[in-house]
Amino acid sequence: MKKIATPLAVIDVGSNSLRLVVYNQAIYPFKILFQKREFLRLGENLDQRNRIISTKIRKAQIVLEKFISEAANYSVSHTYILATAAIRESKNGKEIFQKISKYKSISSNIISSLQEAKYAAYGVISSLDKPKGVVADLGGGSLEIAEISLKKILHKHSLKIGLLRSDCSLFKNNKLEFDKLIIKEFNKIKKINFVNTKYLYAIGGAWRNLAKLDLHLKGFKKNKLHGYVLSITDLKKLYHELSITKESKIKKMNIVQVNRVPTLVLSVYILYMLVSFFNVKEIVFVRYGIREGFIHHLTL
Fold it and tell me: Which of 119, 168, 231, 284 could be a cystine partner for 293, CB 3.0 to 4.6 Å?
């Protein structure tokens, strides 16, 4: 295992938010010195030319420079920028990097969909003991799938399923068409022989917030999230309960991030469709994801 100089910083430029995390160690439990998040929803409402709205590009540039400066306050050895689906798929996403070339010890990476799936898998492999199952990372613009067995990644794929994609409006307006859309994406991996499907390791902000809410409703502390196991029966109950609960009531609980409340029910529904597709027996929620998975891959 390679030794990585710390502290180091990772800036995750996602479809929903930009997040800075400064780490004091490059191995589990990935001790954090500082973290900050800005919700910009870059992957939402792309224009007809598949471009991110110019005001959001400017905001992202400002946030990136601010994050780089804040990371420098911790004397980081390096700052890694990981950009995912929104930047990868839009025609003008690269523009957010225009103002950071003047900074030293910065790496800007627009990671491919398969790299994103790999880092998601490493996020699980690096933080759980002997994991075997399907890793799923739901973001604003894509759903990454990987099969893992202990320290090996057996398969990795990316599907065009995301909480901020325009076609997700069908979830409320035309459920039948939405189901067809999801099944069409799932069918892309139907012929692949997934062997380890007893457990599904759920990562990403949407599902972490879902786990925090379920822990709260059951009277547990949210610090029990990493490795928290949810049965399929309990997932069904949670979906039905949330389906009839007003968003205002969920917000008042002060458990789920306010910006994630509008897509909470959708995230549960996609999770249920996914575990049904793989015939999963239990869901394991994982606190760590592509940022920690990326750091782990640096040590290999």
Answer: 119
d(CA 26, CA 80): 13
From residue 210, alpha-carbon distances to 146, 194, 196, 269, 299 in Å are 21, 26, 24, 11, 31
CA distance 85 to 103: 24
Q: What is the mean pLDDT of residues 39-50?
A: 89
> Cα(299)–Cα(27) distance, rounded to whole angstroms?
8
How much of the chain, in percent, has pLDDT values that exceed 70?
A: 100
In a domain, 42, yes or no: yes
Instruction: Specify the CATH number for the domain of residue 55.
Output: 3.30.420.40
Closest CA to 144 of 125, 160, 158, 164: 158
Torsion angles phi and psi, residue 105, rounded to 5 = 55, 45
The yes-or-no verdict on residue 261 having pLDDT over 80 is yes
Of the candidates 81, 110, 139, which is a domain's last residue? 110
Which H or E run includes 234? helix 232-243
Beta carbons within 10 angstroms of residue 298's beta carbon? 13
Confidence of residue 138 (pLDDT cuts 50, 70, 90): very high
| Statement: residue 223 has pLDDT above 80 | no
Residue tagged 């800005």 (tokens): 38
Task: Give the model's pLDDT for residue 1.
Answer: 84
Domain assignment present for 298: no
| In a shared domain, residues 106 and 145 | no
Domain that holds residue 118: 114-290
Identify whether residues 257 and 144 lie together within a single domain. Answer: yes
Cβ atoms 284, 229 nearer than 8 A? yes
DSSP 66-115: HHHHHHHTTT-S-EEEEE-HHHHHSSSGGGGGTT-TTSSSEEEEE--HHH
Q: Assess whether 66 and 190 both reside in one domain.
A: no
Q: What percentage of residues in the chain have a pLDDT greater than 90?
A: 93
Q: Does some domain include residue 122?
A: yes
DSSP assignment of 235-252 equals HHHHHHHHHTS-HHHHHH
